[in-house]
Q: What sequence folds into this?
């Protein structure tokens, strides 16, 4: 298996080296960006873990990685994200999960926010229509900044999945569909499918990136990963001690695109993240999927051949 994983780096070199993506007339900066992206995916392939496997998530939890999934750890995942033009919050970012199955194109970004214990009592009374209206108002406000920075205005179309909180497992799921203003409503759109697992000291966010044509199928992967995340004893939501533990400055309601995003400096980009982030990620994911996925799907007997590549 070690040889199997290490061979990914060599394969990525072949994939990128064999594709005519570096024309002699291309600007050196563009060539350098592509070279860094190739190197980042190569490093990710070498450092990652193929499921099924138990993946420690910092000092908080364990993720049972399903067979067919691939986990990229923090350092290499950060390099991939930056090579794709995305800013990574070093304190929060944990790693990436992607599928090695044929035709899958989703990616999950795992972060951990250590903000304290999130009170969940608001979930009893929230109203999906009110939450959607708040999100739309927030995007309208953020459009002022987007226009000033030369980005197109955005708008929220509606829920892909209204906020759903399981008070027994302390899991939250929600997803909204957004688009650039002026684009057709029926055009394919990139999607962030947001899932959260609350713990004693904060929460994990497992953010699945997909698109509107695939999300009905792809969201099952997010639910599986969310269910496979188990907090360590002492770190669980039910381990909270009111006498000693810190309570977050915001409650569960804020995790639906509100105060938590603002506190993390993300509110103005919340819906921009839904589209822009997923688009640049899949530039890398598509290349990764074109060759590395085929490699991962080889039978073990092909391992020696893959290593020779």
A:
């Amino acid at each position: 298996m070690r040889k199997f994983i290490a061979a990914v780096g060599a394969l990525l070199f072949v994939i990128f080296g064999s594709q005519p993506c570096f024309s002699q007339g291309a600007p050196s900066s563009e060539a350098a960006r592509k070279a860094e992206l190739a190197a980042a995916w190569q490093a990710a392939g070498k450092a990652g873990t193929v499921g099924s496997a138990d993946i420690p998530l910092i000092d908080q939890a364990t993720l049972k990685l399903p067979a067919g999934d691939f986990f990229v750890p923090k350092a290499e995942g950060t390099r991939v994200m930056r090579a794709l033009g995305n800013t990574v919050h070093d304190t929060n970012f944990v790693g990436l999960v992607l599928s090695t199955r044929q035709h899958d194109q989703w990616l999950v970004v795992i972060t951990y926010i250590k903000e304290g214990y999130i009170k969940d009592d608001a979930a009893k009374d929230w109203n999906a229509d009110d939450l959607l209206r708040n999100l739309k108002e927030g995007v309208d406000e953020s459009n002022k900044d987007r226009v000033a920075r030369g980005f197109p205005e955005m708008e929220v179309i509606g829920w892909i999945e209204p906020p759903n909180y399981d008070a027994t497992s302390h899991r939250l799921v929600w997803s909204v569909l957004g688009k650039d203003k002026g684009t057709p409503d029926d055009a394919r759109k990139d999607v962030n499918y947001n899932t959260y697992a609350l713990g004693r000291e904060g929460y994990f966010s497992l953010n699945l990136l997909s698109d509107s044509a695939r999300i009905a199928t792809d969201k099952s992967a997010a639910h599986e990963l969310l269910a496979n995340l188990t907090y360590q004893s002492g770190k669980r939501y039910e381990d909270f001690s009111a006498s000693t533990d810190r309570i977050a400055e915001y409650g569960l309601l804020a995790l639906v695109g509100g105060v938590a995003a603002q506190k993390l400096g993300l509110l103005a980009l919340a819906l921009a993240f839904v589209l822009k982030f997923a688009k640049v990620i899949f530039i890398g994911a598509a290349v990764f999927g074109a060759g590395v996925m085929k490699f991962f799907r080889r039978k073990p007997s092909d391992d020696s051949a893959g290593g020779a590549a």
Q: What stands out?
A: Confidence is low (pLDDT under 50) at residues 1-27, 259-309. DSSP finds eight helices and eleven strands in the chain. The longest strand covers residues 154-166.
